[in-house]
Amino acid sequence: MSQRRFFLGAALAVALSIMGQNGAFAQQGTPEQQAACQPDVMRLCGNFIPDVDRIVACLRYNEPNLSPPCHDVFFPVVAEEPKPKAKARPKAKPKPKKTEPR
Fold first, then answer.
1. DSSP class of residue 23?
2. Best CA proximity match to 59, nearest among 29, 67, 85, 82
3. What is the C-alpha to C-alpha distance for residues 87 and 65, in angstroms, rounded to an integer?
4. What ranges in 46-98 are assigned the alpha helix state H?
5. Model's pTM, two decimal places?
6. Angle at CA 12, nearest 5°, toward 34 and 57?
7. Is the distance from CB of 52 to CB of 18 less than 8 angstroms?
8. Does the N terminus or the C terminus of the chain have fewer Cβ atoms within 10 A?
9. Which 8-state DSSP code applies to residue 28?
10. Rg (the chain; Cα; Å)
11. Looking at residue 21, what is its pLDDT?
12. What are phi and psi of 6, to 5 degrees?
């Protein structure tokens, strides 16, 4: 069991560092991020240990089944910058009504 735990830790570390290099999140996989996903790896993707690429693919494929902490690691919320508001156009002056001669 300790050998399996070692492979799991190594696989998660490599997977998270690969994701970090690809811009999936800003920093390398921290111990907290690894801990967040370890239960999901065991539950959903344990049969792929120690193949890091398959673990990452498995976790991404199982996005709807990920625990909230692991989901936040793989799919972080990126806030969009607010778009500048368009300047309001001045209202057109109403045209005077034409009066017909009587």
1. T
2. 67
3. 44
4. 52-61, 68-74
5. 0.53
6. 115
7. yes
8. C
9. P
10. 27
11. 40
12. -60, -45
Going from N- to C-terminal start, the domains of the chain cover 2-74
More confident residue, 10 or 33: 33
Is the model more confident about 102 or about 49? Answer: 49
DSSP state of 67: -
**What's the token pair of residue 66?**
């990920």
pLDDT tens, position by position, 15-63: 554 444 433 333 347 899 889 999 999 999 999 988 888 998 999 999 9
Residue 44: what residue type? L
- % of the chain at pLDDT higher than 90: 33
b/e map 57-71, b = 16+ CB within 10 Å: ebbeebeeebeeebb
- CA dist 36 and 43 (Å) reads 13
The answer to whether residues 11 and 51 touch, using CB atoms and an 8 Å cutoff, is: yes
Q: How many residues does the chain have?
A: 102
What local confidence, expressed as pLDDT, does residue 46 receive? 93
The single residue listed with the structure tokens 């994701």 is 19
